[in-house]
Each structure stands twice: as structure tokens, then as C-alpha cells.
Amino acid sequence: MSNIEILKRLYHNYTKKYLPKILLSVFFTVLLAGSTSAVAYLLDPAIRLLFIEQKQSLILVIPGAIVLAFTVKGASLYLARIIMIGVSEDVRRDIQVDMFSSLINADTRSIDNKHSGKFITNLTNDVGMITGLVSTVILNLFKDSLTLIGLLSVMIYQNWKLSLIAIIMIPLASYAARSLGKRIGKVTTQQMNKAGTFNAYLIEIFKNHKLTKIFQKETYEQKRAVEYIDDLKESSKKIAAIFVRASPIMEVLTGLMIAFLIFVSAKLIAKNELEVSNFFSFLAAMMLAYQPVRSLATLNISIHQGLSGAKRVLPVIDDRPEVQEKENASELQILNGQIEFENVNFKYSTKETQILNTINLNIPGKKMTALVGHSGAGKSTILNLIPRFYNSDSGDIKIDDQSIYNSTIFSLRKNISLVSQDTTLFDDTIKNNIAYANSKASNTEIEEAAKFSFANEFIEKLPKKYDTIIGENGVRLSGGEKQRLSIARAILKKSPIILLDEATSSLDAETESKIQKAINFLTQGRTTIVIAHRLSTILNSDKIYVINKGSVIGEGKHDELLNTSSVYKNFYEKQIKKT
Fold first, then answer.
1. What domains can you pick out in the chain, each with its CATH number?
2. What is the pTM of this model?
3. pLDDT greater than 70 at residue 578
4. In whole angstroms, what is the distance from residue 103 CA to residue 161 CA?
């Protein structure tokens, strides 16, 4: 996408709707330009009429006019800026909402392929640069352009010969700014990429701080952090240096111009072609024009920064998920909850090897089916395909003879609960974490779900009970307590299909027993697919599938598989040794 296309996109999608406010701001910049020009112009009659001709009748009028001009100038500048600040914050909000909407609906594959820290940088830093493009650039473009036009008009009115000299400065300043603008865009992109990497690093450090301490890596991580910070510092220095580089260029150009103007003015005054009052009015206009010329000269830099941010943000907003429902998708109707895999193949885009090879499963409704196999066999991938976290590469998955690819995603996921071994909780109250499954649930329903999951046993012992904040990902809770909350959340959803990645091996016997009872309640009368780690779960399953290297190599009940599957027999014997 070219820079022109990006600017058109930002206008049509984000600024066009605020055009009335922008035009109102432009109106105030017209007043600003007029009042600034009036200040310069009024020096001519002030010097000529009050100091040279000494007309006492105007001794209050002209100073009063100057005060009025400055008042209008200050008020107009304030109102123009405050309006554009509002517009820019509205634009920031719109872009962030669009970006978050894209991220929250993005494929699991897309989220997995990029670190969350880089998304945070896109949402904050990069959007901030686009906001600067909208607010600063639009305001300064109109404000400084109109002011410059007004001041140039005053200069031409006072003496057109001197004005030609002043006008030469504008293309010189523009040429200098153009080269700086290209440089700033490149450096800004580098800085934002480094900022994203640094954010990703910080998230990893805060998440794994216990690991850092136990392996005594504080010094090592300190050195790594210093390297990231130094990289960011150097990038920031480069950007700041490019910005300030414009100042000496402008100062030199202005100095040369003023010196030459004084030389020419002295010649013109000596020839009676220019009056002193005209010269001071011209000089005031020229000095006041310095700021808008300088601002317009550096405007190119701000534009390139904003475009640099847009080039990273817009692709995220435009990213369309692969997992989409068909136009004529129908509501999934669950009757028995029978699930069928028909010749399903799958591989992750980031991996060359096939993860699932022609998988055929017939999972009976309202019963428990166990998936058994070594780590990396493809069991979790099978679970992830059912709620369409990923699309299979080929084949079909049906629930009660309805293809999940012909069903709406909402109706599909509404009927599925997932209890993963990687328990995910929010830094919120216990009540809100359970109610995440059903925001309309009453307090009684939430407490019942906690009771059936045995979570109420530890909740009632807490000072604030259900209003207790549990910390980031439940850091203030034990592993067993977190799992019970996760089960309570699934119970509250009351979905007919349960996907369960069983993980109780690290828990003590009493906690494991309670969690098993909670799971039994959760799965009772529901279609359950469990990645089995425990011997009791395997023995209690109505059907068992043995998965090895992405293929189904055995199916049946426990006794059958002991005789027909060497892999299952080996797995079973290892479980016996553990117990």
C-alpha cells in the first residue's frame, strides 16, 4: 500500500466522519491567520501615525487594535487545538476499537504466530503515531499555511521587492525537510519494531519471574534488558537528532535572509523607496512567518512517522481470519451430541510435517471417549479442531450429522466447554471468573457451580469470598484451586459437549479426588472427549482411541485394546507403575 493510498484510507475510514469538527477548527485557524497578519500590519500605522506623525487621537485606538488582534489570535489557537485534540482522540479510539476487534476475532494461528507484546505496541505506540498524523499534521497544515499566506500578503503589501527575497526561503526549507522526512520514516519503523520486541521480552520476564529466580538468572536478564533498552535509546536519539537537525538548517537560512533583507532595506530607505514604518511592519511579518515556515518544513517528518505507524497497524486491522462461517451457515442443533471425524488431515502452517493423517473417529453422544497416546501424537490438535480454533486441511467433522463447517461459529462454540490443563483465569474476582461462561448467571447459579466443582470449599475461607481478586492468571491460588474454578466455569455454561485435557498428576491425592468428582459431575450425561492421563479415567471411558504420530492406531474398550494394541498396552503398563 502506497503512502497516498494509506492517507486516503485514513481519511475515508477515520477522519471523514469528523469533517464538520475539522472544518470548524479550520475556521478558527482562518481567524488565527488573520489576527497574526493584523499584528504585523498594525506596526506600520503604529510607527507612522503615533511616532512619526504623533497623532494623539489614535493613541488608544491602535494599541487597542493590537490587543484585540492578540486576543483573537490566542483564543482562535486554543479553540482550534482543543477541537483537533478531540478529533484525534476520537480517531485513536476508532482505530484501537477496529484493531482490537480484528485481534479478538483473529485465528488462533494468527495470534500464535506473533508475540502479544508486539500487538500491544501496535495498539499503543503505533496508533499514537497515527493520531499525531491526524491531529498535529492537519492542524498545522491549515494553521501554518493560512498564517504564512496572510503574512506574505502583508509583506507584499509593504514591499514586493523584499517579499521576493523572503519567499526564496520556503522552497529551501521544504527541500531540507523532505530529505529528513524520508530518514525519519525508516528510523521510526526500526524503533517501533524494537519497542515491540522489548514489550514481548518484558511480558516473558514478568510471566516467568519465578523461573528467573530459581535459576539465578537475574544478572543475565539484567544484561539482556540493558541491551534492549540501549537499542531503544539509540533509536530514540536518532529520531530526536533528525527532528532537531531541522533547527540549525532553518536558523542559518533565516539568518542569511534577515541579513540580506537589512542590506537591501537600507539601500531602499536611502533611495526613499521604502519608509521606516513599512520596513518594521515587513520585518515583523517576516519574523512571525518564521514559525509557520519552520513548522511546515518539519511537517513532512510527522507525516512519515504517522505513515510508518499506519503501515504496521492497518495490516492487523485488515487481517481476515481463515476460520469463517459460510454465508448460508445454519444454527447447530444438538440432539445426542455424536461427533464424527471423516478423513481429517491437518498441519500447522509453521510446520512442514503433517500433524493429523486421515483421522476417522466416531465419538458416541452423551458418553466419555478417551484419547490416549504419547506427547505430540496429535491429541490436543483433535480437540482444537472441534470448536474450530483451526480449520482442518481436508475432511469433515460432524456433530449429529451436521458439518461444523456448515454451522455458525457462535452456535458451535455455544455448545462446547473446554477445560484445559493450562488453566486460564483473569485478574478479577472469583465471581467474575466463574461468570465468564455466562454473564447473565445469578449469584445462586454461580455458587451452585462452585459447589459442584468443590471450589466453594476454599472460596468460603477467603476474607472477601467470591469478591476476592485472584491476581494475574490466578497467581494467588494453588494449582488445584485454579482447576476447580475452571471446572466451575464449564459447569455454569451447561454445554452438551465437554472437551477435557485432564491434568491432575501434579496434585495431592485429596485435591485430585475432589477434582475427579467435579469432573464426573461436569461430564455426566454429556458428550465428553478427554485426553486421558489417569488410569481411572481410561478405565471409566466408554470408548478409547489410541493416537500415535497423527494417526488412529487403535480403538475400542480397555480390555479389547490390551489384546489388539501394543502401544496401548505399553501406555497402560506405565500407568500401573505410576500408581
1. 3-318 (1.20.1560.10), 337-415+497-507+524-579 (3.40.50.300), 423-494 (3.40.50.300)
2. 0.77
3. no
4. 60
